[in-house]
Amino acid sequence: MTRRLRKHISDPKQWRARAAEMRAVAAQVTDPKVKAATSGAADGYDKLAHMEETRPAESGKRHEIHENSTE
Questions:
Q1: For the chain, what is the domain count?
Q2: Which residues contact 49 (CB under 8 A, 6 or more apart)?
Q3: Cβ-Cβ contacts under 8 Å for 1 (sequence gap 6 or more)
Q4: What is the distance, to the nearest Å, from the Cα of residue 68 to the centroid of all Cα atoms in its chain?
Q5: 69 within 8 A of 32, measured Cβ to Cβ
Q6: The model's pTM
Q7: Which structural domain range is residue 53 located in?
Q8: Tell me: the pLDDT tens digits for 15-48?
Q9: Rounded Cα–Cα distance for residues 63 and 59 (Å)
């Protein structure tokens, strides 16, 4: 995973922004299934943000291992 992508994924602000986008969509749609799906996605993004906010900081050595992995 690239450093730029990891920084983006680890930023709770990004997940909160996505949650806000999903809630804006949910507010505009009239189909109950779509509204439920987009609201659920927003909740999921909020959970990801919370996880990143409460996750202990990783050591630089651990990042090096991930950067050099072949996954």
A1: 1
A2: 12, 13, 15, 16, 19
A3: 9, 66, 67
A4: 23
A5: no
A6: 0.69
A7: 3-68
A8: 999 999 999 999 999 999 999 999 999 999 999 9
A9: 7
